[in-house]
Amino acid sequence: MELFTGSGVAVVTPFTEDLQVDYSKFEALIGFHLKHQTDALIVCGTTGESPTIDDDEKLKLFELAVKTVKGRIPVIAGTGSNDTRHVIELSRKAEALGVDALLLVTPYYNKSTQAGLIAHFTAVADAVHIPIVLYNVPGRTGVNLEPATVKVLADHPHIAALKEASGNITQIVEMARVIPEGFMLYSGNDDHVVPLLSVGGHGVITVIGNVVPQLVHDMVTAYLAGDVKKAMALQLRLKPLNDALFLEVNPIPVKTAMNLMGFEVGPMRLPLVPMDKTKEEKMVEVMKTFGLL
């Protein structure tokens, strides 16, 4: 069950100065990504500040994305949480709005066992009729989705892909080894894209693609077209920018960078706070070398 190959951007959620969702700015961001060949849009992921966006806001964002994209690229809705019943309810509503797939983070804080992860994702997959992208990010959730567990889940007809953000290259290779043919594997770390592609991956769900979508698209496209040298050069070129955009917890730096670039995506909702000025100055210097400022 194929979703996309290339660069899927985990798009930021713009806010007004009084911290309301800025739907007009969100629509403008979609246009920016369509222009710069982004291959999929991930709405209300981690970068989209999903923990502080309520369900009504999420559903409005999903609906707006579907209506704006008009089928040109997949719209993937972030509907994951640590409450299986809530995930099922929100996922069904997102499916009814016409999203193409769902991104489901592993349950956090309550830290289920591997058996619990299988039960959780299977329950959601049984409740919907569109593809599911599993999202493994143990640095945030406190639980790791192990390769053997993914192998079991991949047998479900609605579980189609994995966003792997463990940062563990040994685990990434093992994931690539055990998943079945046709199961999509995406890098969840912008500095691991080419390494993941080299073991059979299909692309990236990117943060830095919010500011340089064309470069990230070009990197993946080059590799998949057989131009490994170009892809490798882009991966190494993007490393300083990636480091700069993770000087603080995501999405603080990327939203700060976008505001500096004139996108007017607004502040973050608490508990995220403005970027430390010293770190912001370091980020600005890197952005200048990329011609972003």
Write the CATH homologous superfamily: Aldolase class I
Radius of gyration: 18 Å
Distance between the termini: 40 Å
The CATH architecture category equals: Alpha-Beta Barrel
Helix share bin: 40-55%
* Percent in strands: 5-15%
Shape estimate: globular
Q: Kindly give the count of domains.
A: 1
Average pLDDT, to the nearest integer? 97
SSE-based structural type: alpha/beta
CATH class identity:
Alpha Beta
- Count the helices. How many? 12
Structure, briefly:
It contains twelve helices and eight strands. The protein is α/β, with parallel strands linked by helices.
What does this structure look like?
The chain is an alpha/beta fold and 293 residues long. It has one domain (6-237): TIM Barrel (Alpha-Beta Barrel). The protein has helices at residues 23-35, 55-69, 84-96, 114-127, 138-141, 147-153, 169-178, 193-197, 213-224, 228-244, 252-260, 277-289; strands at 6-10, 40-43, 75-78, 101-105, 132-136, 159-164, 184-187, 203-206. An eight-stranded parallel beta barrel has the order 1-2-3-4-5-6-7-8, surrounded by five helices. Strand 3 (75-78), helix 3 and strand 4 form a beta-alpha-beta unit. Helix 4 (114-127) packs parallel to helix 6 (147-153). The chain is globular. The mean pLDDT is 97.
